[in-house]
Specification:
alpha/beta, six-stranded antiparallel sheet, 13 helices, globular, binds alpha-D-galactopyranose
């Protein structure tokens, strides 16, 4: 969809006394990162957020009844029990404002509070969308000049998550006078909404969306972001998904509990990729400690789609408590190996084949930081232990596919 404001794709901060002091310092550090420009709120997103978002599948064809059905399906399909919690309404719910400036919902969403109550009654949480600009990317009402009022409205409705999409704020930045001034305006806009959320007293995940411009990973946490989009919009094609996913190399150091890189929502189950390509999508996102926001119609999922989205071992890699994002450790031509450190000393190893026909790919465990003399391996997608290795393993990887291993030392 064309972004309002002319923003184009890709355009887009004594011992008892001693112990007491230590506890206070640790607590303050957890709640408020030292480099932060923002006020603190109760910690959220200590692992990457999981849930569903309306945009990838429904775009503007989203309404109250559809969201309720998605919430129902999230429960009946087993997704909630696998860890998916947020039901996020993206753009196009907004109407104008009333006489006192309060944001109104359009006819597709007659009662947002009732919808939030319904979603909460299922053990799920509700997310919403807005922009720091006057208009959203689809041309609906944004939050510009109404940040505190909107945050208060969201809190009153019972909203738990806000995706805040730059969109027409770009026009305001263009008038700033210099790139530095424009950059600072953007940081101030995100900080303003974060502080408005904190003021409500209701914990909400704060999701920054400005398509990965201006090295957002360097300042996203400082403006209160719990996640920030690192790329332009994904589409349901191997080319788009793999370009975005494999481009994430080098960003690992910016992610951690409470603040994550976001390579965009999932396309699993939308129908334009092969099952091996969707397994690549899911495995890569798990290695990247990426938010897992399903972007398909949860009411019409095939057993295979449910199996990909709810694979407990893949989800466990994504949600690993250490919170360390993985990175590429080796690449040659169309072959890549990505590794993520897990709690307890194990590693998740993704062996990716970017060609569209099968290839044998060799992993040398010593080269990826595991001793030559003994690792035990488990094939995560196959759900089976594949024994021990003295140092090397050759995987047969399907075209555009992945072999995802969980590897741990077993001796010496
Ligand atoms: C932008 C975002 C998308 C979606 C649309 C809605 O393109 O990047 O994820 O939110 O806006 O208009």
């Amino acid at each position: 969809m064309k972004r309002a404001g002319g923003l184009k794709a890709g355009q887009r901060p004594t011992w008892a006394l001693g112990t007491g002091i230590l506890v206070v310092i640790l607590g303050a550090t957890l709640l408020l990162q030292p480099w932060s420009r923002v006020e603190a709120q109760a910690p959220v997103a200590l692992t990457p957020p999981m849930g569903w978002n309306s945009w990838n599948h429904f775009a503007e064809k989203i309404d109250d009844a559809t969201v309720r059905k998605q919430a129902d399906a999230m429960v009946s399909s087993g997704m909630r029990d696998a860890g998916y919690v947020y039901v996020n309404i993206d753009d196009t719910w907004e109407a104008g404002r009333n006489a006192t400036g309060e944001i109104q919902t359009n006819s597709k969403f007659p009662d947002m509070k009732a919808l939030a109550d319904y979603v909460h009654s299922k053990g799920l949480k509700l997310g919403i969308y807005s922009s720091p600009g006057p208009k959203t990317c689809a041309g609906y009402e944004g939050s510009y000049g109404h940040e505190e009022q909107d945050a208060a409205t969201y809190a009153r409705w019972g909203i738990d998550y806000l995706k805040y999409d730059l969109c027409s704020f770009d026009e305001i930045m263009k008038k700033a006078g210099s790139p530095e001034a424009a950059h600072n305006l953007m940081l101030d806009a995100y900080t303003k909404m974060h502080n408005a959320i904190v003021k409500t007293g209701r914990p909400m995940v704060f999701s920054l969306c400005q398509y990965g411009a201006d090295h957002v990973w360097e300042w996203g946490a400082s403006v209160g972001g719990n996640l920030w989009r690192t790329t332009d919009d994904i589409s349901d094609r191997y080319g788009s998904m793999s370009l975005i996913g494999f481009q994430q190399a080098g960003l690992a150091k910016f992610a951690g509990p409470g603040h994550w890189n976001d390579p965009d929502m999932l396309e699993v189950g939308n129908g334009k990729m092969k099952p091996d390509e969707y397994r690549t999508h899911m495995a890569l996102w798990a290695l990247l400690a990426a938010p897992l926001l399903a972007g398909n119609d949860l009411t019409t999922m095939s057993p295979e789609t449910i199996a990909i989205l709810t694979n407990r071992e893949v989800v466990a890699i994504d949600q690993d408590k250490l919170g360390k994002q993985g990175d590429r450790v080796w690449a040659e031509g169309s072959q890549e190996i990505w590794v993520r450190e897990l709690e307890g000393g194990a590693k998740a190893v993704g062996i990716f084949n970017r060609f569209d026909w099968p290839q044998n790919i060799q992993v040398d465990f010593e080269k990826i930081g595991l001793k030559r003399t003994g690792v035990k391996m488990r094939d995560v997608w196959e759900g089976r232990d594949i024994g021990r290795s003295g140092g090397k393993y050759v995987a047969r990887v399907p075209g555009h596919g992945v072999v995802l291993l969980r590897v741990a030392r077993w001796c010496c």
